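DM between two lab members

TW: hey, do you still have the 2-dehydro-3-deoxy-phosphogluconate aldolase entry open?
JB: yeah, one sec
JB: this one, 220 aa:
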Amino acid sequence: MTIDKQLPSTRTTELDSICLKAEVIPVLAIQRVEDAVPLAKALVEGGIMVLEITLRTDCALEAIRRIKEALPHVSIGVGTVLTPAQYRLAEQVGADFVVTPGTTEALYRYGVESPVPMLPGVATVSELMVGWQYGYRRFKFFPAEASGGVKALKAFAGPIAEARFCPTGGINLDNADDYLALNNVMCVGGSWLTPKSLVDAGDWNAIRRLAREVADRFHH
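TW: and the structure you got?
JB:
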C-alpha cells in the first residue's frame, strides 16, 4: 500500500481549520427539504458555522444543495457516508468534508484520493490504527458514550497521542464540557441543538436561541 506522504499534513490541516470554527457541530437529519435553509440560517445566526447533514433522509442531498447555495460561507459536512458511491454524491453536492459512522478499507482508499477530506468514524484502537496506516490523524469517535466516552479517549491518548477526535453519540449540554476538556478532542457533534419538536414546529427562534447559548458557552 502506498500512502501519499502529503496526506497527513494537508488533510489534518483542512480538518483542523474546519473544526476550529466550532467546538460543537450540530448533526442534522433533515426530514422536510423546506426546513433545510431556515434551520441552517437559525443555527448560523446563533453563531454556529459548521453543520453536519446526515444522509439518513431521502431529501438530504437536495437539502445540502439548498443550504450551500443560501449560506456559501458555512462549512457543510455530509454525514452517515457508508460507501464510496455516497462519498461521490457528497462531493457532487459541494461537501466541505465527509463524516462516516465507521470506516471500511474501500472508504479509506477513496478518501485518500478525494479532494474532500474525510473524518472517519472509529470506536476502538484497532480501527484507529487502520486509519493511521492510511495517513489519517483526525477521527470521529462514535458512538462516543457507548464506546467508553471520556475514559476511552483518555486511554487512546497514551499509545496514539497525535490523533484528535470529534466524539459524537450520546453527547449533550451536560457532558460536552468533559469531552472538550480533553487535549485530543477538537470538537463534539450532537443532535441536541435541533430538537425534533422545535424543527417540526418550525420554531426557528428557539433553535437560534439554543445555538446562541451553545456558541457563547463553548466558543474558543
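TW: got it. Residues 6-212 form a domain with the TIM Barrel fold (CATH 3.20.20.70). The longest strand covers residues 24-28.
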